[in-house]
Design a protein that fits this description.
Elements (H helix, E strand, L loop, with lengths): L2 H13 L14 E14 L26 E9 L4 E11 L5 E13 L4 E9 L22 H4 L6 E13 L2 E18 L5 E18 L2 E12 L5 H12 L3 H7 L5 E14 L2 E12 L7 E11 L4 E14 L6 H4 L2 H11 L3 E14 L2 E14 L16 E11 L1
Antiparallel strand pairs: 1-2, 1-16, 2-3, 3-4, 4-5, 5-6, 6-7, 7-8, 8-9, 9-10, 10-11, 11-12, 12-13, 13-14, 14-15, 15-16
Helix pairs in contact: 3-4
Length: 406
């Protein structure tokens, strides 16, 4: 889809006052819906690019629409009260420099009971507090999920089976979602110069939620055997290691045969009497030796509604807590060892503060202005294409987004 056609469709979707299925009969088994964000972002520097997680290209000085704009279209068909099918496409700038359209959902759903259902096909991996809605701008206060946390587990979809159970214990509702299968796709490895790799990851994801009045608590766990055979930058290094007699180190770094990576998240929200609070913590661990670092990340947000406006502030951070591969002293002292340490085993770190205001300007429409101040502390932080020595000054990002559901 060309940029001009995409932006024209997105503008039409954001501005139309009608629901997508309004022309269908009330008893139609077919339902249509969608969501979209028309956004523009700019930074105060050309020294690096600001991106969302797993994006190949992003924003520099001068506004660009590619960072935050997207368009999602969904169709569901009800065969029986118990059996339905859902298909959702998502158009955005993601792992390539242009807009692409991918299937984000494609499943059959069977309601086994009023509380238990099973889905077969492509579903969202249940790992974050807002995994199902992370790409729906209208459903979120901030323009985008904090890069510090969401970049740690960028696998969004899995092809397989999904079980969901929901039950009320008095005033508390408990939900359990379990998804298993195989995820395939592309991953942008920003620490390796933006190397885009194809990956395959058999995985199991579990999320438990507790809701009581204005409070919600979420606990997620993901185990994935992440593998890629075309990570050219890493493969070149492991080939060099084998050539100089460090085959054991090469095997520990490599992900050609798949290595188990674990991710755990804990989040909470409160929306009560105009006060909105949201926080989430995540930790990634390499359960098997691999180049992937062990990282912790978190964010916290607070906002307060004033009529149709919601001003908010958030802070986010990511830091490296360890590594699963240690280089022998003799290797670490060589140029090859230093390149491996700095290029693969040392993870970017950063802190960020953001201020924003959301305006619910019409039913199912919101306009948000947000300013981020990013402070890379190791390498270029979560920005890409930065200088080899790393960024040493804060980066300001200003963005505006019109969100809609229809």
């Amino acid at each position: 889809m060309t940029k001009n056609v995409f932006l024209a469709l997105l503008t039409l979707a954001a501005c139309t006052p009608l629901r997508a299925q309004s022309w269908l009969p009330a008893d139609s088994p077919l339902s249509l819906s969608g969501f979209g964000t028309l956004g523009a972002a700019s930074t105060n520097t050309d020294a690096a690019q600001f991106i969302r997680y797993n994006q190949a290209s992003g924003a520099r000085s001068g506004f660009t629409t590619g960072t935050d704009s997207n368009l999602g279209l969904q169709a569901s068909y009800r065969f029986t009260p118990e059996l339905s099918a859902t298909l959702q496409t998502l158009t955005r700038k993601y792992t390539s420099s242009g807009y692409t359209t991918d299937l984000s959902w494609a499943f059959l759903k069977l309601a086994l009971t009023k509380e238990l259902s099973v889905r077969a096909g492509r579903v969202v991996v249940p790992v974050f507090m807002a995994s199902d809605t992370q790409n729906i701008g209208y459903a979120n206060t901030m323009i985008r999920p904090p890069m510090e946390l969401y970049a740690l587990a960028p696998i969004e979809n899995v092809d397989g089976l999904d079980l969901a159970w929901q039950h009320a214990f008095g005033a508390t509702s408990v939900g359990v979602q379990v998804a298993g299968g195989v995820s395939t796709g592309k991953l942008v490895v920003s620490s390796a110069g933006g190397n885009v790799v194809d990956f395959r990851a058999p995985l199991l994801g579990v999320r438990v939620t507790l809701e009581n009045g204005p409070f919600m608590l979420s606990l997620g766990r993901l185990q994935a055997d992440f593998g890629s055979s075309d990570f050219t930058a890493l493969n070149a290094v492991t080939d060099q290691l084998r050539a100089v007699g460090y085959g054991d180190v090469a095997q520990r770094l490599s992900i050609v045969d798949g290595k188990r990576i674990d991710f755990t998240s804990l989040g909470m929200t409160m929306d009560s009497h105009d006060l909105v609070l949201q926080a989430e913590y995540g930790r990634r661990r390499a359960a098997e030796p691999a180049y992937v670092s062990n990282n912790d990340a978190w964010y916290a947000m607070a906002g307060y509604r004033i009529g149709a406006f919601l001003p908010y502030y958030a802070h986010a951070a990511v830091r490296q807590t360890g590594r699963s591969v240690s280089l022998p002293a003799a290797l670490a002292a060589t140029p090859l060892g230093q390149a491996i340490d700095g290029g693969f085993l040392t993870s970017p770190e950063q802190h960020s503060d953001l201020l924003g205001v959301r305006w619910n300007l019409a039913p199912s429409r919101a306009l948000t202005l947000q300013v981020d101040r990013l402070r890379p502390t190791v390498k270029n932080g979560e920005l890409t294409d930065g200088p080899p020595g790393g960024l040493h000054a804060p980066v300001m990002v200003i963005a505006i987004a019109l969100d809609a559901v229809f």
